[in-house]
Amino acid sequence: MESFRLGTTAIADHSFNKDHTFVAVARENNVTLLQRANGKIRPVPGKAGTLRFHDKTVTGVDISCDGRIVTCSQDRNATVWELQQDGTWKPFLVVLRINRAATTVRWSPDGSKFAVGSGARIIAVCYFEAENDWWISKHIKKPIRSTITSVAWHPNNVLLAAGSTDGHARVFSGYIKGVDAKPAPTAWGERLPFQHLCGEFANKTYAWVHDVAFSPSGNSLAYVSHDSSITVVYPSAPDAPPKAVINLDTSFQPFRSLVWTTEDQIVAGGYDCYPIIFGGSQSGWKQTGAIDDPKKNKKNSGPASQFDEDGMPTGSALNMFRAMDLKGTTQQPNDDDLLTIHQSPIVTLRPLDEEGGRVTTISSTGGDGQLVIYRV
Amino acid sequence: MSQIDFRRIDVDQYDPDSFISKEDLTPPCKPVSAAEQQQVATEIRGAISRGEAKAALPIALDFAPYGGDDKVKDAHLKSVIEVLSATKSAEIPSVVKALNKEQQDVLIKYLYKAMGSPQGQSQGVGAILLAWYEKTVDITGQGAVVRYMSDRRTV
Q1: Where is this region: Disordered (chain A) (predicted)?
Q2: Quick one: pLDDT at residue A239?
C-alpha cells in the first residue's frame, strides 16, 4: 500500500496513463499532472504540469489508451488535451450542448470517443470531426429522468452503462456510424442503433446510483447506490429479463466507486474510507474481505507524504515546526485521525496494474487530497 | 449571496423536454387500504395480548404500508409502537437477530418515524425507542440507517 498526499483540497477524479508513468488529478478548477517514478509522485514542473481551461470545478478526468486527456467541469464544458511536440498540452474544442454541469467523463476503450454525463439528464457521446477539428456530441436523452452520476464503457466500445440519481442503472448503445465497426451481438443486444436502451435496472429503494461498471468480459454489470448496496446484473439475451440480478444490502456506509478485479470479484469504496472486497457469481455475492480495515489497524502512522501543497519536500523536522507553527501542536498523527489511510470518503477507485487477467493494484482518491495505491 | 440566488429559480418550467414527476422517482408500491391495516392491527393486538410480542413484530414489519396514505401509515405506526413497547428490553437483541435483513431495515425506518412523531414522544415511549435503536444498529450496522435515509419508499 502506498499513499501520497497531493494537497489538502478534495480530488474529484484521477486517471493514470497507459503505462502508469503519470497521473492526472482533477482538483478545484484545474487538472494537475504528476509524474510517477521510483515509488514517488511529483508534479510535472512548469506550465505543462497544470491544465487550465475550466472556470468551475472540474468533475472528471480520463486518459485514453492513446494518451489524450479529456476533462469535464461544472462550467458545462469538456475539453480534449493533446500532447504537443514541445511538451505542452493543447486543448481541443468539444461541442457538448448541455445546459447543466458535466458530472463525469470516460473514454471508450479504443479512445475513439468518450461519454460525458451531465445534470441536464443527458449523456453526450462525443467523437472527433476532422473537417472542423473539433469533438462533436450526440445526445442520449430518454428515458433518463435525473442527473447522470457515472458512465462506463463495455469492452466492445459500443455499449455504455450509466448510473443516475433517478435510481436507475441503464445500458445504452453508444454506436456512432462512421466511427464504430458493427459490433458483434452480445447478451445485451443484437442490433444496436444509437441510444437504444439495452437494459434498465433499479433497486427497490430507487436510491441514487453512484457508480456503474461492466465486468472485464462485459457479460455482467455491477452498480453501487446510496442505499449501501451493491448490485450485479447478469443479462440473459436481448430484450429478455436478466438471468440474475443480485442485490446485496451491506452493513457499510454507501459506496461511491467500484472496480472489477476479476469476473468474480469487485472492490468497492466510499464513505467508510477503505475499500471492501466482494466475491460471487450468478448464484450470489457476499463480502469476502477488506483492505486497510480500520478494525485491524491499531494506530495509523499517518500518510507517508512526499511533498506538501506548495511542492516542498516534507522532512520530519520541517513537518514538526510547521505543525507547531500552524496548530500549536507537536503531536503527530492527530488523535482524531481515522484508522484508515484515507481520512475522508473515497470518491474514485480505478484499476491500475494487471497480471494474468486480474487486477492486482487499484488507485483511489477522495476528499482528503490523498492518492492511495492498494494491493488487492 | 447574490451569486447563488439564481439557484432558486425553477428553470425547468421553461424546458419543453422536462418530463420528470415525483412518481418517476418513487418505486411502484402496492396501494394499501385502511381496512387491510385494521386487519393487521387486530392480528398484532391479538398476538400482544397472548404475550407473543416476538411473533407480532415480523407481522407488523412485513406489512410496511409503503403504498398507503398518511392515515394508514400513522395507524400502522401506532401498531408498531405497541409491539415495541410490549417487548421486554432484555429480549430486544434476540428478537432483532431473528428478523431478516428487510425486516431489520423496516424496523429502523419505524424507529426514526416514531422518534419524529408525537406518538413516539409521549411518556415513556422515547426511552423504549432509544433502547431499540441502540440494540438494532449494533446488529445491522450503519447500512440500515443509510437505507432509511435513501429509500424513496417511506413508512
Answers
A1: 287-314
A2: 87
